[in-house]
Amino acid sequence: MALPWVEKYRPKSFADVVDQEEAKYVLASWICARFRAPKDFCTRWAKKKDKEILDARAVLLAGPPGVGKTTLIHALAREIGYELIELNASDVRTAERLKEVVGRGLREGSLFGYGGKIVLFDEVDGLHVKEDAGGLEAIIEIIENSKVPIVMTANNPYDPRFRPLRDISLVVNLKRLSEEEVVEVLRRICTSEGAKCEEEALRSIAKSSLGDLRAAINDLQMYLSGGRKTLTVDDIKRVGERNPQLSMFEILDRVYRARWFDEARAISFNPSFDWEQYFIWATETIPVVYKEIETMSVAYDRLSKADMFIGRIKRTQEWELLPYALELALGGVSQIKSKPRLPPFIKYGFPQRLLILAKSREARKRRDVLVEYLAQNLHVSRSYVKSEIIYVLGVLAKSDSKIVERLSKALGINAIDIKTLL
Ligand SMILES: Nc1ncnc2c1ncn2[C@@H]1O[C@H](COP(=O)(O)OP(=O)(O)OP(=O)(O)O)[C@@H](O)[C@H]1O
């Protein structure tokens, strides 16, 4: 399998990490003030003198997904020649295990002549404070006693549960990448892959990535998969049209993985977002993603409330209510208190409802013709035909086959089909 481009083009040095200059200055100033680091690096990057930065015991990089938090730490370790001890909070479920792993990492000598060690707790907000017995306290204890740099990353460290961690660390916010920067990185990748990519096409990918460079690079790789060497705006449109289920998979994935309410809600601004389709897909994918009955029930409750808004909108045409419905259906389904940690890959199936509807499309068309014919000739509404007449005709047709024949002649639909419709 080809190397994912997010790995292939992961920045190796501090300078290669784009659009995060402020964070780089803060991080470098902290490292250079408190630990041993190469002079060249410090001269170039350690530009901050604030006491708060120089005195910090640990650094917590906060920001949305795919903006370079983890990459920045990897680049830092490489720049200063330190060995990186990387721990994912969810891998380390208990205080004992956490201390053991960090302790072992710090005790063992480095084989490759590193200048020191740096500990990275990736995604600390993935810690379930209740379940991960003592995990948070253990991290704080490690920070308090550590002689090596400790850095953490989090999408959302502003949950009150993480207050103690924020208090003891310097929180450095990384921003969403600008559209310009995303386009620039995509352009460079196109050149290096020998592909001709239209500026407009890259801009369109950048726009829908919402500042998440990882998502943008993944999209570009998908568009250029199979060795394709050109990318035009039309290609992007065509892929969207030909594979609506593909973009719906992406939409669902973004909704379920969104860390913040706003992030989930923003998906409705995406040009490919079709809320009617989304409702169908969400209905069938909630139990695929949320296995626990409680979480599942909260998600369904919110989706059903959104559906009540939709029902009202359809009845009264009060379209100004749509944003409320979408907030419930996107933010509400995505942000659930007991939300579990999601696996890296979720297999969202194609909704059965759509498959059944597609299979029965012809039969439904014939049924509509029949209903329309009866409604017009009997001077009644279509819903009356559906709820009453069809049933009565069905019973009559069983005892008198002429009824079916006459309907068949009048409608030009063969008699067997009429029988199955009644
Ligand atoms: N600022 C950046 N400069 C250059 N490349 C970046 C930047 N941000 C992200 N990338 C690209 O996106 C990929 C993912 O970035 P990274 O893992 O650092 O994101 P993250 O912010 O840690 O996200 P998450 O919170 O989901 O872990 C990188 O491998 C890199 O290719």
Quick structural gist:
Helices cover 59% and strands 8% of the residues. The protein is an alpha/beta fold and 422 residues long.
What does this structure look like?
InterPro entries: AAA+_ATPase, ATPase_AAA_core, P-loop_NTPase, Rep_factor-C_lsu, RFC_lid. One of its GO terms (molecular function) is ATP hydrolysis activity. Part of the RFC clamp loader complex which loads the PCNA sliding clamp onto DNA. Belongs to the activator 1 small subunits family. RfcL subfamily. ATP binds at residues 63-70. The protein contains 22 helices and seven strands. The chain has four domains: 5-173, P-loop containing nucleotide triphosphate hydrolases (Rossmann fold, 3-Layer(aba) Sandwich); 179-239, Helicase, Ruva Protein, domain 3, CATH 1.10.8.60; 248-334; 352-421, no CATH class. The strands form two sheets. The chain has a five-stranded parallel beta sheet, sandwiched between helices. The chain has helices at 5-8, 21-34, 39-45, 51-54, 69-80, 95-107, 135-145, 163-168, 179-192, 199-209, 213-223, 233-242, 244-257, 261-266, 275-289, 293-316, 322-334, 352-359, 361-378, 382-399, 401-411, 415-421, and strands at residues 58-62, 82-88, 116-122, 150-154, 169-173, 196-197, 230-231. β3, α7 (135-145) and β4 form a beta-alpha-beta unit. The protein is elongated, with a radius of gyration of 29 Å. It has 422 residues and is α/β, with parallel strands linked by helices. Bound molecules: adenosine-5'-triphosphate (ATP). Adenosine-5'-triphosphate (ATP) is lined by residues 6, 9-11, 17-20, 65-71, 153, 155, 177, 213-214, 217.
